[in-house]
Amino acid sequence: MRPGDGLAGRSLAPLRRAAGHGAGADLAGAHGAGAALAARHLAARDQPAACAMATRTRWVTLPAESRAARLARQVTRDVLHGWRLTGLEDAAQLIVSELVSNAVRHAQNRGPAVGLRLCVAGGALRIEVHDSDPRLPRARAAGPLAESGRGLLILDALASAWGAGTVGRGKAVWAELALSC
Hints:
Layout lengths: L12 H8 L11 H13 L11 E8 L4 H15 L6 H18 L6 E9 L2 E8 L19 H8 L2 E7 L2 E9 L3
Antiparallel strand pairs: 1-2, 2-3, 3-5, 4-5
Helix pairs in contact: 3-4, 4-5
């Protein structure tokens, strides 16, 4: 993907297939797309905390409110412009929106804030979202008309690697986007 291409350089076929996983698809189960999603996540989750070796880092604390995803997208857009990584902007904003929305929705009543860390390390843009809920994300089946339930599939389709782990009393969910040369 070249700078300025946004999502144009990526195939949306995985997203279209993900949207088709409807009734009867058990994504947390041991067969079909769920097994592939779980296997990729399990292999990736043991990667060390890459931001410790980052060349560029930005941390923002967001309110655990419905406006957090909008604020996170704006921060991501501004940071990527400053770092001259605008070619990753569309995918990064979609990932940030999914992760922050999930943190706000599922970690409600467990803390007043959500943390967003963007960093460049090891040839990738790493996006981390921290919240105070120690429960790790689980893929779930989404019916064909469901308005939710596809976030991890979107994450898996866009990110070169992703994972989650406990941090203190909460968790961090992360995704990486490979830097284009």
